[in-house]
Amino acid sequence: MTRRPRLANDSPRHGAASAWTWAVGATLAALVMTGCADPARNVYEGVRTRDTTMQTPMERSTQPAPTYEDYERERRKAGGQ
Questions:
Q1: pTM score, two decimals?
Q2: Among 12, 43, 62, 68, which one is most buried in terms of CB atoms within 10 A?
Q3: In sequence order, what are the residues at sequence separation of 6 or more whose Cβ sits closer than 8 angstroms to the Cβ of residue 68?
C-alpha cells in the first residue's frame, strides 16, 4: 500500500487556523474602521495641522487654533443644536 503525499489542507487543524485567521482579519478591519469613524474630525485635524506647519514662528506663538471639540461646541451653540 502506497501513501499519498500529505497536502497542506489535510491537517485536522486547518479549520481552526482558517477561523483564527478570519477572526484576526475581522478585528484588524474593525480597528481600521474605528480609526476612520469620524471623517469630519479627521479632515478638520488635517487642515489644522497643515495650517500650523505653514505658519511662521511668530504666527504660531500668537494664538493656537481651537480643538475639534471647541469647534463642535461653537458650531452647535451657533446653530442651536
A1: 0.41
A2: 68
A3: 41, 44, 45
